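User: Second chain of the day. Same drill as before.
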Amino acid sequence: MARFRITILAVLLVVLSGSAARAVGQVPQVNLILDDGVVLIYKGADHGFKPGDFLDVVRGGQVVGRLQVLEVFPTFTRAKIVGQEKTIEVFDIVAPAAPGSVLEKKEKPAEEKKEKKEEKKEEKPKKEPKEKKEEKKEEPKAEKKEEPKKQEPQTVAVAAHDKFYTISMGYFFLNQDFDTDVVDQPGTLGYGVDYWMRQGDSGAYLVAGYFASNPEIKIATTGAPATIKNKFWSFSLSYVMDSGAPAGKGKSAMYYGVGAAYRSLELDSEGLNAPLLTSTEREVKGTDYHLLLGYRFGNDAELKGLYSFDEKYYSMSLAFSLN
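Assistant: Same format as last time:
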């Protein structure tokens, strides 16, 4: 009988803990604290948050701080810390601010005490020499109160964009194996356009891109090497993880990913050196797979590299965001 009771109690505890975990997950909380006094709450417009609203930060049933909503998105809210009695921490509960909170109540008594002290000083009769001493003491105090306080400028992190374009330009290296005697394959300028699409609330993106270049190859001849001009273009789709999202776009961060591309390489695009090419295929098309690695400098610029590990071509580009 005792074992049966213990089993029932254990089942009840598991059910209660599961329901409690679900309840906590639905309550708005402080999910991320940035260096500039800005916090992120992973609850958005569906919870009724509006820009300009004041929110109380509660821990253990007590108000420890106050927030003001800056921006509201479908899945998260960005707010700034406007006051705190204790240090605000991650997982503190967030609730609409009630009038007459703990922070406001503590400021009023201090002001009332100052007023009462000044009234008492005025009511007490004082001798002439004492009044002179008090006047001398009060003058420097009044000057200290009138001194304006310097406010340091605050910088706020910009939320990461869900969708944006980048334009890139850099060097492209063909690095192919040909059936003829190739002396050199120098790097040539190339350009591209990428469209970034954020996936959910994480730092993952789908990146659709286009890249084009006119690479050259030099073939050995009896005299000086002959330069053959070619055309290269590709359409790619990559899955990228960005370490700077979703906390904020505006700080330097690294990203990396993998993808596939459909590429076309047209040999001797000008048709001037066809006898020098022993290859029967003048245009080569197919699907390639590549690795992508980049580093973002703030909001506007990034340096990225792409390497095709089956065809061995690669590029190094500097890209600029249009947002």
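The chain has a mean pLDDT of 76.

User: Great, on to the next one.
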